[in-house]
């Protein structure tokens, strides 16, 4: 597929998606949202892809939503009686971030420079987040007179309601050290070389995990708090029984006994 706002490349088990609007600090346009949806759909249809790496071009992850799109929506709103274009614009981002949140792959974000607004939201739905110490995080929406509407629920899930209130209502800005302390990011890196070394290490760990077991485990984790506990544990037991009896389970057990790597880790 051809992309205008992304650079997308598959290497081994990983799909690398780079937000590629460096002239705008990779601000998220509606076109970028559409292309991210397409990239996630491609990954969902390709079982060979076991990890997705999201990062930004030329030193910034994402500076939030593109203000030009809001201006375009305002012009559209005055010229048409159709669906509210501001609603459609905001909701399109919500559909994309939900798709990212529920991707069956391990989603890894590499956070550098600006990690604001929508970029902050993407960080909050990643399974693993690697941050530069000097990255700048924040939710600037209320300072612009708007609302972090599609992002807020994912921020609450990531850091808890108490911290989310502070971050959203004060528009706090903070660096990678604080992002790790809050649980937004997992790995803190002091140099570009450390970021690349950490990313390589994380991808090697993903490769050692069985693909189907990882997919089922991620889906199970997403169900916590959404259904009654006994029902969840019943489902989990069925998943466990199926995994033990699967080809993947047999291979994993045999590899352990024979003191070798299972085929998916080679």
Automatic annotation (TrEMBL):
A GO biological process held by the record: isoprenoid catabolic process
InterPro entries, per database record: ClpP/crotonase-like_dom_sf (IPR029045), Enoyl-CoA_hydra/iso (IPR001753), Enoyl-CoA_hydra_C (IPR014748), Enoyl-CoA_Hydratase/Isomerase (IPR051683)
Gene3D superfamilies recorded: 2-enoyl-CoA Hydratase, Chain A, domain 1, Lyase 2-enoyl-coa Hydratase, Chain A, domain 2
Entries under Pfam families matching the protein: ECH_1
Matches recorded under SUPFAM superfamilies: ClpP/crotonase (SSF52096)
Record-level Gene Ontology MF annotations: catalytic activity
Domain of life of the organism encoding this protein: Bacteria
Family, similarity comment: Belongs to the enoyl-CoA hydratase/isomerase family.
Identification of the protein by name: Enoyl-CoA hydratase
Lineage: Bacteria, Pseudomonadati, Pseudomonadota, Gammaproteobacteria, Pseudomonadales
């Amino acid at each position: 597929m051809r992309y205008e706002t992304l650079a997308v490349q598959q290497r081994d088990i990983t799909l690398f998606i780079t937000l590629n609007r460096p002239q705008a600090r990779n601000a998220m346009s509606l076109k970028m949202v559409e292309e991210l949806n397409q990239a996630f759909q491609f990954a969902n249809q390709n079982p060979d892809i076991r990890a997705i790496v999201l990062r930004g071009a030329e030193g910034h992850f994402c500076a939030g939503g593109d203000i030009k799109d809001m201006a375009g929506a305002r012009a559209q709103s005055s010229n048409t009686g159709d669906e509210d274009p501001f609603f459609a614009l905001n909701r399109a981002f919500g559909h994309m971030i939900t798709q990212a949140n529920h991707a069956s792959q391990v989603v890894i974000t590499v956070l550098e420079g600006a990690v604001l607004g929508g970029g902050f939201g993407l960080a909050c739905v990643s399974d693993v987040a690697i941050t530069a110490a000097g990255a700048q995080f924040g939710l600037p929406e209320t300072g612009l007179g708007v609302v972090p509407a599609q992002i807020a629920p994912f921020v609450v899930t990531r850091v808890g309601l108490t911290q989310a209130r502070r971050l959203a209502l004060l528009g706090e800005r903070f660096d990678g050290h604080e992002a790790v302390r809050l649980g937004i990011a997992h790995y803190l890196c002091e140099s570009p070389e450390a970021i690349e070394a950490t990313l390589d290490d994380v991808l090697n760990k993903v490769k050692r995990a069985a693909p189907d077991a990882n997919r089922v485990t991620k889906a199970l984790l997403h169900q916590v708090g959404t259904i009654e506990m006994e029902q969840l544990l019943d489902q989990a037991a069925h998943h466990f029984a199926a995994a033990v009896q699967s080809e993947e389970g047999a291979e994993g057990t045999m590899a352990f006994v024979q003191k070798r790597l299972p085929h998916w880790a080679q």
